[in-house]
Amino acid sequence: MQPIHLDWIDVAILVVYFAFVLGIGFVLKRYMRSSNDFFLSGRSIPTWVAGLAFLSANLGAQEVIGMAASGAKYGIMTSHFYWVGAIPAMVFVAVFMMPFYYGSKARSVPEYLKLRFDEKTRALNAVTFAVMTVFSSGISMYAMALLLNLILGWDFNVSVWLSAVIVLLYISLGGLTSAIYNEVMQFFLIVAGFAPLVYLGLRDVGGWSGLTARLAEVSTAQGYAPGAFSHSWQFMGSATENPMGVEWLAMLMGLGFVLSFGYWCTDFLVMQRAMAAESMMAARRTPLVAALPKMLFPFLVILPGMIAIALTQHHGASGFSLPAKPDGSLNYDLVIPLMLRHYFPSGILGLGLTALMASFMSGMAGNVTAFNTVWTYDIYQAYLRPKASDAALLWMGRVATIVGITISVGAAYFAAHFNNIMDLLQLVFAFVNAPLFATFLLGMFWRRATGHGAFWGLVSGILAAAVHHGLTQPHGATTLVKGGWLGHVWRTYPSEMAQNFWTAIYAWTVCFLVTILISLITRQQKSAAELTGLVSSLTPRPSDEHVTWYQRPAAMGALVLVLALILNILFW
Amino acid sequence: MSLFDLRLPLGWLFFILGILLEIAGLRPAPTSDGLPSSVNINLLWGGVMVAFGLVCLWLAHRRKRKFLQADVATRRRRGDETSVN
């Protein structure tokens, strides 16, 4: 494709944005006096800022590009990743789990595991998490550089190094606060950049009714019922009826329970934002504040994909169509850049590209700040230099930022040369993440769960994920990275997504059962005093008597759930 | 650690970007795909962004003034107490 030509005004918008990003880092530098300031923002972030950062840290470019691509591939069903796969878990973490995370005064999620269980459980979580964050950030850097090369004709090396240096500067100067402040600005920019795209796109296809009429043609052309692209639940009775190839049970249990709770309730990348909040009440409200805009994001990132596929169906008439890849399938990843080029004149085009860059940076910065904290507190201070002074920790935080970003850059180049190895790595990461929520659930709500139980439960959960993947395949699999590498194929799933969901369900169940079993046959090493503040039955409930009922986390959570339910029904 | 108000840089960023869009909107142009735009999206959206930026700046300004007033009030109270003593 022809690279997009940028006018001076587009470049000016990009430059102004970068100036602000770096400016925030420089201004915040003088506030960074202790490691606590650098890694935890001195626990002084107001609710709305922490909430929007909580949302934005997860909103990497891969999310934006990927969700738009899924919108084109699967239609409105993609919204399950929000209304089923995020909102309930965000409410759960706010109402039930945050009192233990924030109240324990742990400085990271692995540190909570150390306080609650033991050293080896913390080490397992800290090391796998640290490795995953730097590689994820590298993989997204690679994806972004590739995209910028394609749509703007920018050199791969320039894109990688420029973005690395900017993120490096603003984080090493201002630490977590700088990342959080920038994430909030990025959130507003992403909304500002994509909202007009949806507006122009919808206008063009004749509003929602025009869109559904065109999507009906897309559906029938692919062999599904006319409403399969514009109804989220109606065609989930069996996996063969919908383009996603997933049935309702796998969706509810796999995505809605295991994967979603595993991510939103245990991942330090997002949790770090809530742990930096100024008070317990602010920390508990953080995921709830994030849940409100999160609920509306499908309209911002999935709708462009649906509009793009609807326009592609009427090939030629609209002047827009998604290009095909060499293997004949459509290149869905180009939805956002091509839509920007199609609808935006110079000026707002610069804003749209800035939003894309912003989402990329917020995702990367989230990974880097989580990495430098886990590295410094849970690996360096825990095992390498237990007696390090606070100044040494602050220094180490800055060094870890540089090292983390350097490894990410290395991973980006690695990905450029060995694409398959990166697929393999992401697969292993999925195995590691799948069972985690069982460990936290038992740790927080079952006093009897022991360190040995947690550790071996996690290990067997990860193994169960690997074994399930090795014994199953998605329909039409061609490589062993997709599964079936144990030689015998036990089950063939209708789609890769169904296989992923079931892998997670098996991993969670095995981890849950093994943790209970081993806990029952081993002795609890922690005294009741040590477990106070970490386990539900030994922790006094945080009092919210002093605020009016509608300001209490439980009431806010209920409201969020009702709104999510309404959205599910509206698009049923 | 008392930080500066985030609404300040946020407000300025949106204000400046909005103005840049308004400038682009003065000279309506087709998109890179050669699509003539039916609405002047630059002019329209630039206005929205300028307005959002101004609201942010106003909120930040209001909070700062409230802080200053509270500060003056505490000092005055302290001053009264010392004069009574």
What does this structure look like?
- Helix content of chain A is 71%, strand content 1%.
- Chain A has 572 residues and is mostly helical.
- A two-stranded parallel ribbon of chain A has the order 1-2.
- In chain A, helix 3 packs antiparallel against helix 12 and helix 9 (156-205) crosses helix 15 (348-384).
- Chain A is globular and about 70 Å long.
- The model of chain A has no long low-confidence stretch (mean pLDDT 89).
- With 85 residues, chain B is an all-alpha fold.
- Chain B has one domain (7-84).
- Chain B is rod-shaped, with a radius of gyration of 22 Å.
- Chain B starts with 6 loop residues before the first helix and ends with a helix.
- The model of chain B is unreliable at 80-85 (pLDDT under 50).
- The interface between A and B is large, with 43 and 35 residues.
Give a topology summary.
The complex is a heterodimer of chains A (572) and B (85).
Chain A: H1 8-28, H2 35-40, H3 47-56, H4 61-74, H5 80-83, H6 87-103, H7 109-116, H8 119-152, H9 156-205, H10 207-221, H11 248-266, H12 268-275, H13 280-313, H14 335-343, H15 348-384, H16 390-417, H17 419-433, H18 436-445, H19 451-471, E1 472-474, E2 491-493, H20 496-521, H21 528-531, H22 553-570
Parallel strand pairs in A: 1-2
Chain B: H1 7-25, H2 41-84
Helix pairs in contact in B: 1-2
